[in-house]
Amino acid sequence: MNINGLKIGIIGGGIGGIAAALALRQRGAQVTVFEQAAELTEVGAGLQISENGMVVLRALNVVGEVPEAGVRSYGTELRDYRAGRLVSRLPAPSAGATYYYHRADLLDLLHRAALREGVVFRLGARVLQTRKHPSEAEIGLDDGTRMRVDCAIAADGGRSEIRTDLNGPETPEFTRQVAWRATIPWEHRVEKPKAALTMGPGRHVVTYPLRDQMLMNIVAIEERSDWREEGWRRRGDPEDLRARFAEFGGPVGEILKQVQDPHIWALFLRPVARRWQNGRVALLGDAAHPTLPFMAQGACLALEDAWVLARSFDEQSGIRQALTAYETRRRPRTRKVVAAAGANARNFHLRGPMRLAAQAALMAIGPRLSRKYDWIYSYDATV
Ligand SMILES: Cc1cc2nc3c(=O)[nH]c(=O)nc-3n(C[C@H](O)[C@H](O)[C@H](O)COP(=O)(O)OP(=O)(O)OC[C@H]3O[C@@H](n4cnc5c(N)ncnc54)[C@H](O)[C@@H]3O)c2cc1C
After folding, report:
1. 364 — pLDDT class (breaks 50, 70, 90)
2. Which atom of ligand 1 has the smallest separation from the CA of 265?
């Protein structure tokens, strides 16, 4: 269908919401993004965007062939925790190239591209609910105003409230895993930057460089059940972080010594949504399929969603048909990636003899391991 002039409201100005706004605006829709925050900001942390996400960023003209702001990845080193011994080197995925982005930089690139195309942003606009009418969707804001649009897309993140409009209340499951994140200044530029994944019993640390290798991004995950706060903005105690990862030596031990301002949050699990859309309102990104961070794919999946959603409008004759086609196409892939991320949590945290056996296997098959996930990285939503 031709969506020229169609009124579309996007709830949430994160990576998924802005990418969807851009893809729909580029097809002529009148798009407004409703974002609850007063400013579009992202927490100071990194994101790995693999080729399946990069193809969408290129197709949306957010980045060029040589993407600015990202650091190209040359693979991942798997290390053991005590002295940081190298267990195996995983080459970068054979499909295209993966880039390390500062979240704020990626969001800024998307935001600027959306403004250039004429997407309208309403900041400080918290959406409380959506309603489906026979030929419209209604978006209810916290200041009491109600907006009528032809179609609403809820990209309001892993704790989506709009998901409840479609699926009813759900109780998330605490994973008994807690994540720390931080960035530190970095001065060791190398020709071929890599991520390091350092594995210990019940915990692991991922590090990779950002912003022209001037910052080091750190995500540390520990199995722990006494911390259940889910928000991203809670500051943690750096000494507590160091104490909890005190047995981590080698390069990562040195990096942890420099952390000054970590954040901490508990990881909760919500399943892929049972119902993604009702013919007028659809979920996108983490709102539809929250994923644990262990495959580094949540933002990439949100980018894929954005492209597939917009293309479903090209291919279908009406809004209901487009949203149904979008759900049908996205559900199987997102389920499979979410399951792969869940399985990795267990693999990274093995204890005792299981850990040593897994390391021996990794030494032997490590270089081929990236190929196991080719189906993730080589997926091209834009063809
Ligand atoms: C530690 C960690 C590391 C990760 N690393 C990677 C990685 O390397 N690669 C990768 O691809 N993914 C990664 N992810 C996942 C990625 O961060 C998310 O999947 C991605 O940000 C989801 O984007 P989104 O737009 O769906 O949601 P969000 O980024 O959560 O955006 C939702 C937006 O909606 C707004 N909002 C919420 N409710 C309302 C409302 N009621 N009204 C208006 N606005 C609202 C919020 O303020 C927010 O701006 C990681 C996640 C974690 C936790």
Report:
1. low
2. 53
